[in-house]
Amino acid sequence: MNIPWDILVASSDLEGRRALSNILGKLGVDPLTSSTVRECKELIASERVGLIFCDRLLADGNCYDLLNASRGGRAKARVVVMSSTADWDEFLEAMRLGAFDVIASPCRATDVEWMIIQALRYERTEARVALRAQVAAV
After folding, report:
1. Which of 13, 17, 68, 85 has its CA 20 to 30 A from that of 130?
2. pLDDT over 90 for what percent of the chain?
């Protein structure tokens, strides 16, 4: 899969991080991994992270901390919140605060692939809109 940015897996659960990294590996992606908000913020600031798969809770914070940090990188990273509970209110809150999407944890390969495809489509749409705006300004 040809992806123009890095994917970050943010999880304090070692087994969950490994499982998601294995899924991404089968898709041809070598993800960045982290277990803390602090590490994630450093990666977001120094790398070209475009998509983040994040557990709801991390060792030193939560997904909402990463939602705020994702807006500060070189390019806005999309955050997919992974939740082991099927709480509708949690889903709505994450989306209200800017999450790209929410998926069930442990992740299924089809869900992960779908999120990547959606992020790629979204990025291409944003690029077309920006190009049209530039052409219209000329």
Report:
1. 68
2. 45
Tokens, residue 45: 């600031």
CATH of the domain at 121: 3.40.50.2300
Q: What is the pTM of this model?
A: 0.86
Residue 1 lies in a domain: no
Task: Tell me whether residue 43 is in a domain.
Answer: yes
Q: What residue has token string 């994917």?
A: 7
Q: Quick check: is 22 in a domain?
A: yes
Q: What is the largest CA-CA distance in the chain?
A: 52
State the Cα angle at 103 between 41 and 86, rounded to 5°.
115
The Cβ-side half-sphere exposure at 14, using a 13 Å CA radius, reads: 0
